[in-house]
Amino acid sequence: MSLKRRIPFLRWSFWRLAIGSRNITKTGQIGDGREAAAADYVVANARRGDIDDVIAKIDDFAYDKSFLINIGDEKGELLDAAVRRAHTELALELGTYCGYGSLRIARAAPTATVFSVELSEANARVAQRIWAHAGVADRVTCVVGTIGDGGKTLDALANEHGFSAGKLDLLFIDHDKAAYLPDLQSILERGWLHPGGIVVADNMLIPGSPKYREYMREQQGKLFDTAEHKTHGEYQTLAPDLVLESEYLG
Ligand SMILES: C[S@@+](CC[C@H](N)C(=O)[O-])C[C@H]1O[C@@H](n2cnc3c(N)ncnc32)[C@H](O)[C@@H]1O
């Protein structure tokens, strides 16, 4: 791997991301159009209908063109393994961004239906273009909203998309770090996750979600059985990160 791929500080797009970090929390985008550019790049360069090639081209874009805040290739392998371990038929992701995480879930679980909740309409449009190009738009759906919007999005998942007690196999949490724990608790209150279902949480070191991590420590052997996977932040090998994989014990 080249030095530029390993060390993010050598890339202007990484510094631009740091400058745009306030933008991300408000709009879900970095502010320089890179998310739409990623979709353009995929449509121009990836083989239509080839999910492997679409995922590879998004990774190429993130390494060589503009840094993206996807789960990325290294941590993505942890997600893939959890998806397979959960025998996933129904998955829910919180935080769609460009649709990369959902694509990985759809690839690791070829018969699964995947829903992804995203606050930004613009990101939903980017993800939908990429999913259509990968040929998975019939089973991967973005729901624009938030779990914390007073029940609107949770009700939409229940009433329009068939979420019901014990149906959810895999929950991937990768959005607003302050919302990790309350959103998990809202989903648990609905009873959608069944015993043996798995919750994966990204970015548990950088930027981290201390209340979520503490909760999983408290619940160890009670409501959840959690493994903390040591890994690196997306698209570089300099900064460490943690991915939490928690089996629901019910
Ligand atoms: C780190 S990115 C998600 C990356 C994606 N999971 C992947 O691996 O490809 C975070 C995304 O969460 C969205 N987001 C932030 N807060 C949110 C919330 N409360 N509900 C839903 N989406 C949210 C942002 O707009 C952004 O698109």
From TrEMBL:
Keywords, alphabetical: Methyltransferase, S-adenosyl-L-methionine, Transferase
Protein name, as recorded: Putative O-methyltransferase
Membrane-crossing residue ranges in chain numbering: none
GO BP field: methylation
GO MF annotations in UniProt: O-methyltransferase activity
Keyword set includes Transferase: yes
Keyword S-adenosyl-L-methionine recorded: yes
Organism listed in the record: Mycolicibacterium rhodesiae (strain NBB3) (Mycobacterium rhodesiae)
Gene3D superfamilies in UniProt: Vaccinia Virus protein VP39 (3.40.50.150)
Pfam families cross-referenced by the UniProt entry: Methyltransf_3 (PF01596)
